[in-house]
Amino acid sequence: MKSDETIYHGILLLGPFNCLALRISEAILKPLCHRLSMPILTYESDGYAVPPVFLRQVEVHIQQVLDAFDASGLARSGRGGSPSVEAEDSFVQRIEV
């Protein structure tokens, strides 16, 4: 995948509880997302069932990403098509435009 051909409208970071790689990723991406007005949501899993309150946060996050896509003009120009969800592995999903 080439970064110049892909446009992201939001990020969802998922990782195990107390994972240094997740925290470093969040430390790098969170300020960037705030500067670009891009929604970002982070979740650290401790291995137990995901609480309903976080599932609601994911729904709100997805709506924010779709709103950002609509506001970008790609939806109206037809260049972006419809956002699709791509699963690369069992833990990572990417909403691609």
Please name the defining characteristics of this protein.
disordered C terminus; 3 helices; flat; 4 strands; two-stranded parallel ribbon; single chain; 97 residues; alpha+beta; two-stranded antiparallel sheet
Could you explain how this protein is built, in words?
The protein is of the alpha+beta class and 97 residues long. The protein is built from three helices and four strands. It has one domain (3-96). The protein has a two-stranded parallel sheet. The protein is flat.
Shape: flat
How many individual β-strands? 4
Strand content: 15-25%
Question: What distance lies between the first and last C-alpha atoms, to the nearest angstrom?
Answer: 13 Å
Domain module tally: 1
Task: Give the strand line-up of the largest sheet.
Answer: 1-2
User: How many H/I helical runs?
Assistant: 3
What percent of residues adopt helix (DSSP H or I)?
40-55%
Order of helices and strands: EHEHHEE
In short:
Helix content is 41%, strand content 21%.
Fold blueprint:
Elements (H helix, E strand, L loop, with lengths): L10 E6 L3 H16 L4 E6 L6 H20 L2 H4 L6 E4 L5 E4 L1
Parallel strand pairs: 1-2
Antiparallel strand pairs: 3-4
